[in-house]
Amino acid sequence: MGHLIGKEDIYTKLGQKIDRLQTSVPWSRAFYEILKELYSTEEADVVVKMPFGLSTLDRIARFSKYEKSKLRRILDKLCFKGLVIDLWINDDYYYSPSPFVVGIFEFTMMRTGEHLNTRKWAHLFNEYMHKEGLFYKANFEDGQEVSPLRTLPHEEAIIDSHYLEILDYEKATFIVEESNSFSIGICSCRHEKFHLDQKECDTPLDTCSSFGLAADYLIRRNLAKEVSKSEMLENVARSKELGLVFEADNIQRNVTFICHCCKCCCNALAGISRHGYPNTVVTSSFIAKVDESKCEGCGKCAKACPINAIAMVPIDRPKTKKKKKQSKIDTSICLGCGVCALQCETEALGLVKRKQRVIPPETTFERLILTCIERDNLQYLLFNNPQSFTQKHIRGFVGGFLKLPSVKKALTSDMLRSRFLAALKTATKLQGKAWLIEM
């Protein structure tokens, strides 16, 4: 890849820009081809010159030197492609470059209509994410704990004595009830696998659930359809019947999406089962447990488990000839989703409370900060003008400081993390951007 990295064309710069957002995106031939396929050179130039975070049209025009009416047309095209996100906040649109995940992959594969190169896109994404595997390695190999996704337990799978321990933000139905706008779109992973001829299930494509500002964006840009609260609750109920895993936005407040994931298609689950990174999806606060006295060794739970965390092991001294195997759960990777329990007819499986509760970031603001710390990108979020020569040097200095192992360890520790987040919140309020903290 040396000949590409050394070539300062616009797509190389675009790749560097996307790699400096929320998720790390290592350079490769497949990634280069994805960028060339999705962005025109003019669109790539605009994204390269955009600030790293949410910004108004006026601010982007000032930094990029594009005339405002022309810039608006380019941004509109990018938003319809899902390559830029626009959110209506405080009576104005705020634009931000889409990260690779959740963003470029999902929104690209949610698009429908004629004259789209969907099959080609699917092959390019598959080449980059799975055949090369660079994305998973860059984001999770070093034990990173902050993922965009967290597991929601199926409430019916929780054993009664532990049921009262479930918090509101851990319930899919509560997330729906608390929201005021809703959209359902095509599952990007299943759509990708369909075009790769790798979709093994009968699960419908139209399951991807979004809420609030995210739903408004997807509806406005024809990436999803608007639905009512009752339709969304029906969507959740259908997914329970189908034995799908609920993977939600990894925050407590103002959750923006719930994915309805199947074993054969989900790229996040494949990060665990195929690539071996158990932190690709954050677990729930529950874990599966087997009641050996009730288990009949049928193996339905093992077949249903979305990450192959259940094995059927031989019993040394079976009490009956009928029961020769027993379910055994790999607790090191169990998501605590409860899909296995939904398939168990003898109620031998259920979810119990983990020894330590899993507490997600409170807001998108907090998750973004913690994600950028883990992936060495915080300096771009703090000093977000890519056209400023002064900020470029500040980013270099701050980035080098933040990469020091002792500094990074301190900022992610329980003792200093809350203080650091509090300081950033105060600074954000002083800049007149208090609304960012609540997102």
Helix content: 40-55%
Mean pLDDT: 92
> How many whole angstroms does the radius of gyration measure?
22 Å
Number of strands: 12
- Major sheet size, sense and barrel closure: 6 strands, antiparallel
* Strand order within the widest beta sheet: 3-7-8-5-4-6
- DSSP summary: helix tally: 23
Shape: globular
Low-confidence stretches: 1-7
Taken as a percent bin, the fraction of beta residues is 5-15%
Q: Return the structural class.
A: alpha+beta
N-end to C-end Cα span: 38 Å
Q: What can be said about this structure in brief?
A:
The chain has helices spanning about 1-5, 10-20, 30-40, 40-50, 55-65, 70-80, 100-110, 120-130, 135-140, 160-165, 170-180, 190-195, 210-220, 230-240, 265-275, 300-305, 340-345, 365-375, 380, 390-400, 405-410, 415-430, 435; strands at about 85-90, 90-95, 150, 180-185, 205-210, 225, 245-250, 255-260, 285-290, 310-315, 325-330, 350-355.
Compile the SSE list and pairings:
Elements: H1 2-5, H2 10-19, H3 29-38, H4 41-49, H5 57-64, H6 68-81, E1 84-89, E2 92-97, H7 100-110, H8 118-132, H9 134-140, E3 149-152, H10 160-163, H11 172-178, E4 182-186, H12 188-195, E5 206-211, H13 212-220, E6 225-227, H14 229-242, E7 245-249, E8 257-261, H15 267-273, E9 286-290, H16 300-304, E10 310-314, E11 325-329, H17 339-343, E12 349-353, H18 364-374, H19 378-382, H20 389-402, H21 405-411, H22 414-430, H23 434-437
Antiparallel strand pairs: 1-2, 3-7, 4-5, 4-6, 5-8, 7-8, 9-12, 10-11
